[in-house]
Amino acid sequence: PTAAPIDAPQDVSQSTGTVLGDMIDASTPDRAFAQLFSIWGKSYAELHGQTPCDKAKTAGLACLQGDTDVAGLKAMNQPAAVSFVMPDGEHVFGVVTKISANAAAETVTLHFEDRVLPMSANAFAIRWPGDYLVLWQPPKTIARPLVFGQQGEDVRELRRLLAKAGFADGDNDLKGQGSIFYGPSLRDKVRAFQAAHGLDVDGIAGPETLLRITGIAGETTVPAIFMPEN
Q1: pTM for the structure as a whole
Q2: What CA–CA distances, in Å, run from 32 to 29, 80, 81, 213?
Q3: Buried b or exposed e, range 171-192, using 16+ CB within 10 angstroms
Q4: Alpha helices of the chain — where are they, by DSSP H?
Q5: How far apart are CA 90 and CA 102, in angstroms?
Q6: Per residue in 40-70, pLDDT tens?
Q7: Burial, 43: exposed, middle or buried (Cβ in 10 Å; 0-12, 13-18, 19+)?
């Protein structure tokens, strides 16, 4: 049977009962990945490949995995498959589908298939090791990592996205009318963005940097997970 959603954020590290028991039964890595792929309208079981990222490639999606914190999840702004450590040390697996915030607190919503568990961000952080796997659709106009000295319309698009994310290099960037040259000032803006978001400060707009820029700019293909409240 489906466990009823928990209405109020809870510290599940101290929870007991059938809700968590039911979730553990539905929380294998493959089930979490299948749910993540379904959000993108893809069938995980039917795709070819040995790993989730292999399968993503055959589906025409980019895949990124690593370690981050709740701020990093908000910046990427994409549903993320994560692990969750139970009090006995067992790892279960779910998908972060929403992070909401108001003046008082942040709430992280985890899905274990059709079971829904919202909890405070602090409670989530207690039991989340920081791992993530996200699928995403890079901007079609940016098909390569962008570095100092390059030029092209993709550089202009990087400027527009950076400006929308709050790191404008010039007055025309937000209008999509900025320079096509990746010069020193744009490199400084990329570095500033990377420093602000805990990334390697190398001035290269590679996959992880671009994922976070598009997430903060609000230009995601699937519904954004970070939802500030008034």
Answers
A1: 0.84
A2: 5, 9, 6, 25
A3: eebeeeebbeebeeebbebbbe
A4: 18-25, 29-39, 52-58, 70-76, 121-127, 153-164, 184-196, 207-217
A5: 32
A6: 999 999 999 999 999 999 999 999 999 999 9
A7: exposed
Whether the Cβ atoms of residue 164 and residue 174 lie closer than 8 Å to each other:
yes
**165, two tokens:** 């994310």
Residue partners of 116: CB distance under 8 A and separation at least 6: 5, 6, 109, 110
pLDDT at residue 179 above 70? yes
Quick one: tokens of 191? 């570095």
Are 75 and 224 spatial neighbours (Cβ–Cβ below 8 Å)? Answer: no
Q: Judge whether 169 and 181 are in contact, CB under 8 Å.
A: no
Instruction: Give the tokens for residue 215.
Output: 């997430």
The span from the CA of 138 to the CA of 77, in Å, is 13
- Say if CB 136 and CB 211 are below 8 A apart: yes
CA 134 and chain centroid, separation? 6
